[in-house]
Write a structure and sequence with these properties.
The protein is mostly helical. It has one domain. The chain is built from 12 helices and no strands. The protein starts with 5 loop residues before the first helix and ends in a 5-residue tail after the last helix.
């Protein structure tokens, strides 16, 4: 076929060359993103926050668990994941929106785009580089907790650890994608950070206050309010992490019946993993689409 149709051979070679160039661009950008972050203050503060948080929880959490009759790191793990839900998204958003908006404001795009790099590979390298940087301190702090618990001879909840680690990874990826979308659509760093903070604040308020107000004021059906809440990645993470230690969701009261009626336990757990990943991928994809069709410099 190649001999009969030389144009097909040229097209295949072009595709292979583009794929290789994209992969090289991805690797180079990924390494550069990691190297730059390791020299920056935001990453040091971000990592120190989670390791300090884990240290405090280990010092007080394990002691409290033994006094109250609990065993293992379950109590510490529950507290850590709930605090990480409030801390990680705002750190990720504020730092991520600076990525492209900061380069645009500093005029770095003109230099970067003059290099023999694939735009798709460069963009993907930045997205996954930021994701690796965001998830590393969170996972590292949890691993440190497991090591500490193992040294102290405390039972390690492996199932809970892997489950919560997967939830945290999917939640962080969602906000990475949203952050890159905001960074692509804004020209100034200050504007991007303002939008990022407002998004985080809206989602945080949507955990309880906004939905409760809508339910009381408009007499909306409980199923409708719960379905809307399940579009909030913070709410999805919160309920899924609670479900691991409270399978019947007794702490949520009547809301639990609506969740089980709409999703069921197994389907909701699948939703809790896949929805944030899909949200992050869609947001990052929209960001790339907007970037490729904009005046890049």
């Amino acid at each position: 076929m190649l001999a009969i149709n030389p144009a097909y051979a040229d097209e295949a070679m072009t595709r292979d060359g583009a794929a290789a160039r994209g992969w090289l661009s991805f690797r180079a950008t990924f390494r550069l993103e990691i190297a730059e972050a390791l020299r920056s203050r935001w990453f040091a503060a971000y990592a120190a926050t989670f390791f300090a948080l884990t240290g405090l929880l280990l010092v007080f959490g394990l002691t409290e668990s033994r006094v109250l009759g609990f065993t293992g790191l379950s109590r510490t793990l529950v507290t850590y994941t709930q605090l990480a839900m409030a801390i990680a998204p705002v750190f990720v958003l504020i730092s991520t929106v600076r990525a492209l908006a900061g380069d645009r404001e500093a005029g770095v795009f003109e230099y970067v785009l003059a290099l023999p790099l694939s735009l798709a590979g460069w963009y993907a390298g930045r997205v996954f580089g930021r994701f690796a940087l965001a998830i590393a301190p969170v996972a590292g702090a949890l691993v440190a907790a497991l090591v500490y618990g193992g040294i102290r001879g405390v039972a390690i909840p492996w199932r809970e650890f892997l489950f919560d680690m997967g939830l945290l990874a999917s939640l962080i990826f969602a906000f990475i994608g949203v952050g890159f979308l905001v960074s692509t659509l804004t020209r100034k760093v200050d504007t991007a950070q303002t939008f990022a903070f407002l998004i985080w604040l809206a989602l945080l308020l949507g955990l309880d206050l906004v939905l409760l107000g809508a339910l009381i004021r408009n007499h909306a059906p409980l199923e409708t309010v719960v379905a809307a809440a399940m579009l909030n990645p913070l709410q999805v993470f919160r309920v899924a992490s609670m479900m691991l230690f409270d399978p019947q969701l007794v702490l949520l009261g009547p809301t639990a019946y609506a969740i089980f009626d709409i999703f069921g336990r197994e389907l909701f757990l699948v939703w809790a993993f896949l929805y944030p990943i899909a949200l992050g991928a869609l947001s990052a994809g929209l960001g790339y689409w907007a970037l490729s069709r904009s005046d890049l410099p």
